[in-house]
Amino acid sequence: ELFASVEPILAELLEDDVTVWVLGDGPYPPGAVALQPLLDAAPDELAPEDAWVPEDMQDTCLYIFTSGTTGLPKAACVSHLKSVMCLSFYELVGARAGDVVYLALPLYHMAGALLGVRPKSPRAAGATCVLKEKFSASQFWDDCRAEGVTVFQYIGELCRYLVNQPPHPGERAHGLRLAVGSGLRPDVWRAFVQRFGPVRVVETYGLTEGNVTLFNYTG
Q: Where's the AMP-dependent synthetase/ligase domain (predicted)?
């Protein structure tokens, strides 16, 4: 659905040796690489190990586009090492193999792509991820009950949206035990726990382009 924004400058991108990949039903004009036919034709077997093991764990694994708070969005390099280290995130915050994680964050952001939907570390391996296309504060508690959600990954304002909602009959009749994320203000934190029950909150902070992460274990 975003290709229409890129198509007018496709020729310029190709002149600059920029490859444009598109996922979804085509047809697409020459120069755009349609991924779906390639995925359909790909074998189920893994390629030989030397084709996918990086030579250096500090090499770039992927680019994550930051929000651009100090200017336009820009690509931050994420190494293979940092990508692997992200696998331990849910173990560090206390998730377990039987948990069901509710994720409504964009998958082009590090919190969604590297922390939310990645395979979990051994202690949390097998945890289920419920992907929501858009966050809905009015549907949140119904979703939690319907899907058996036990862990909610937030950014701070999502919790504020929930606190600002009118009373909901199911807002304390749920299995949510853990909320983890970044940017939760103290007033919203207090209101969230007082209103919605004994949910353990683990506030974290990190930067896509940084090398330090903070965890508030004490609450």
A: 49-213
